[in-house]
Structure to design on (153 residues):
C-alpha cells in the first residue's frame, strides 16, 4: 500500500534511544509534496499539532515547497525526520525557525531558573534537505532559545 501525505498518520519512531523523549511516535504531516504546491500551511499545521515531544516526519523523497517560515516549537516537536525529503523555496526567507523559550545561559554558574528546560534540549533535524533558488540569500534553519541541536544526514 502506498502512503501519501494527504492525511496525518502516526508511525513508530526509529530515533536514537539514547536521548530521552516523552513519546516515541512520529506524526506524518498532510502535504502535497510535489515541489509545486505550497505546503507551508500543511507543514506548519503538523508542527503546531504536535505535542509532548513528538517527532514530525516528512514523506520519503517528497519536495515540500514553502513560501513562509515554518516555526518549530521545541516544547512540542522533539525532532524532524526528513526521510530524504526536501524543503524548497523561491523566497528569501528563514525556512525553519526552531524556537524554544530559553533566554539565559547554559553555564553551570548561571541562575538555575534560567537554564534550558529539559523537554526543550537536544532537538534534532535528520535527513532533511533544504533548497532555494541559488540567487536568494535565505536561511535554511534558524535556532533560538534551545540547546544542543543535532543536524544529521
Amino acid at each position: 500500500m502506498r502512503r501519501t501525505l494527504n492525511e496525518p498518520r502516526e508511525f513508530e519512531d526509529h530515533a536514537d534511544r539514547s536521548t530521552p523523549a516523552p513519546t516515541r511516535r512520529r506524526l506524518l504531516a498532510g502535504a502535497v509534496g510535489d515541489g509545486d504546491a505550497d505546503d507551508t500551511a500543511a507543514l506548519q499545521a503538523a508542527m503546531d499539532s504536535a505535542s509532548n515531544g513528538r517527532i514530525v516526519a516528512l514523506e520519503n523523497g517528497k519536495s515540500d515547497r514553502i513560501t513562509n517560515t515554518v516555526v518549530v516549537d521545541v516544547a512540542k516537536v522533539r525532532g524532524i525526520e526528513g526521510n530524504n525529503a526536501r524543503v524548497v523555496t523561491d523566497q528569501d526567507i528563514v525556512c525553519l525557525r526552531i524556537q524554544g523559550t530559553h533566554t539565559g545561559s547554559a553555564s553551570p554558574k548561571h541562575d538555575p531558573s534560567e537554564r534550558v528546560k529539559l523537554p526543550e534540549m537536544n532537538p534534532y533535524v535528520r535527513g532533511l534537505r533544504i533548497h532555494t533558488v541559488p540567487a536568494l540569500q535565505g536561511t535554511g534553519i534558524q535556532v533560538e532559545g534551545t540547546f544542543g541541536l543535532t543536524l544529521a544526514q
Q: What stands out?
A: The CA atoms of residues 123 and 149 lie 5 Å apart. The helical segments are 40-49.
